[in-house]
Design a protein that fits this description.
There is one protein chain. The longest helix has 31 residues. Helix 1 runs antiparallel to helix 5 and helix 2 runs antiparallel to helix 5. The protein folds into two domains: 113 residues, no CATH class; 32 residues, no CATH class. Helices cover 52% and strands 18% of the residues. It starts with a helix and ends with a helix. By secondary structure, it is an alpha+beta fold. It is elongated and about 85 Å long. The strands form three sheets. The chain has a two-stranded antiparallel ribbon with strand order 1-2. It has a two-stranded antiparallel sheet with strand order 3-6. Strands 4-5 form a two-stranded antiparallel sheet.
């Protein structure tokens, strides 16, 4: 085997090891380098703690995953509403005769239904992903170089 053939084999081996290393460590890298950025943007947008706590990374296949937010239900996708915003809309009681809440002054308030202002669009997930992607890339390259030099 020529010296060039040996270099090609070494490069192919390094590529395979890097791909496997990244797949094994992907979730850890995202949790360390990306999720804090997304949560920081959500916090800066003054989103509820439930939104911030609902931010997750889900591995979908080898070396692939998606950023998601699990706050809410399919019927009430709260994270989606707080991220993408809503239009002004009418709310009405579902299982009771009237809605009930406590006002800022501490008084009981009731309504058989009324219009509410929509939520403003925050795009917190997208902005956080954009800002955190560079940090994730740098962290991933650094860790991959470290893995390759440990040989």
């Amino acid at each position: 085997m020529s010296a060039l053939d040996e270099i090609v084999v070494q490069l192919e081996d390094a590529e395979k090891k890097t791909i496997e290393f990244l797949d094994i460590n992907m979730e850890q890298f995202v949790v360390f380098a990306l999720l804090p950025e997304v949560r920081s943007v959500a916090r800066a947008a003054n989103l509820p703690d439930e939104f911030i706590d609902g931010i997750r990374f889900v591995k979908t296949e080898k070396n692939k995953g998606k950023l998601t937010n699990v706050w809410g239900t399919p019927e009430k996708p709260l994270a989606l509403w707080f991220n993408d915003g809503t239009n002004d809309h009418f709310i009405a009681p579902v299982s009771k005769k009237a809605l009930h809440w406590i006002t800022l002054l501490g008084n009981d308030a009731f309504s058989k239904g009324h219009m509410v202002r929509g939520l403003p669009k925050t795009s917190a997930m997208e902005i956080g992903l954009f800002l955190g992607k560079k940090k994730l890339q740098q962290f991933t390259v650094e860790k991959s170089k470290g893995m390759l030099t440990e040989r």
